[in-house]
Description:
The structure is a homodimer. Chain A is mostly helical.
Amino acid sequence: MTAKAKSDRYHHGDLRTALIATAVELIEDGGVRTFSLAEASRRLGVTVSAPYAHFADREELLAAVAVHALELFHADLQAELKGLAEPPDRLAAVARAYVRFAGIHRHLFELLSEAGLDKVRHPEIKAAERPIDDAFLSCVRALSGAEDPAAAELATAVEATAHGHALLLLDGHFGRSRKATARAAGGAARATLALVEGRRLLSERVSGATGLVKRRRR
Amino acid sequence: MTAKAKSDRYHHGDLRTALIATAVELIEDGGVRTFSLAEASRRLGVTVSAPYAHFADREELLAAVAVHALELFHADLQAELKGLAEPPDRLAAVARAYVRFAGIHRHLFELLSEAGLDKVRHPEIKAAERPIDDAFLSCVRALSGAEDPAAAELATAVEATAHGHALLLLDGHFGRSRKATARAAGGAARATLALVEGRRLLSERVSGATGLVKRRRR
DNA sequence: GTCTATACCCGGATAGAC
DNA sequence: GTCTATCCGGGTATAGAC
């Protein structure tokens, strides 16, 4: 690969990278379902067999795109957390970032959540998820103290809340306007706060239930 | 269609109905993605063109299956609500039923939430959703009083919670054992209760915030 | 209402030349 | 590393006979 402009054949400095970029584009407006290696090849002006020199198959390319998407999300998440100190606020920010990402990169989000990529076959994906999981879990732990047995359930509930709002957003539940993403993200953040508060209240009721707390019931 | 056992050709009392039933089966174990009219036809021993006498295209059959799934879910929901009087409990039961349905009829659930069926083209789907929406909304209204402006957001949050838990369940987040569905459903129900409590608390803080309530902050 | 036959389109993937 | 050529499979859908 030393000679560059070579004959009339198509040439790339780096077809592998170009394929990933094109796949991101193609998926960002069209979704994973309709994405095909053939189409990507056409776009880049190479034949359908060329990609096989860089990826074993379609799924391997998709995995690379998934990694890219996760890195994107991680960056967004860090930005959203920046400057927030209070654990509940940080948790709410995670939910907000999650929903925003889904709204802004719909199809990349779908790739991550619906494509059913085999994470065993593609450990890169797991690796790219790691820092995100860590950020999330550190927020949960900061909130409830590491010893809290209910921490895991809270983490799950927050995750479900964010995920649920994201899907409702993509479903048009918040409308189709530009504001929809903001509405959904705000809703998820508030729901997260409510969850945190409600959980604390319910656990108080169970453990050291005082008359005062009990009186709130119904 | 008066003569029944006629010649050696394949015959059905009602191919239309049989197609729906077969599609349900095929989708219940294999998912929508891989479902094809061709396969369904083979199963029933008719040729690939036969279905077109009853359905305009593949999607029309899928719509019929979706209606079936919604009816199933509605029945489950009613059963789950039976005997519960307290609004929070009823709301939690809705979430529980939702997650259970997702766990037990994975692929039918996927059809409903991911297949992207065009509800404008298929008003039957909207019609089948109606009674479910009504049941859900009546629970929300019973809880917050019809005038509460936050009712809509609560409804959304509960929906998101149920949906989120359902998806996490299908993702293996609660394990793959037979107990996974129960765990997820329980989690969704508890999260719903926490949501209801937390929301009440947060709104008190805003509206008639007393020193006592305020003190709970942080 | 169902069949036969067929046309059409798409995608994935491989062998072998350059 | 890319191309040419080619095979495979799959599905959707239609026309026309019975």
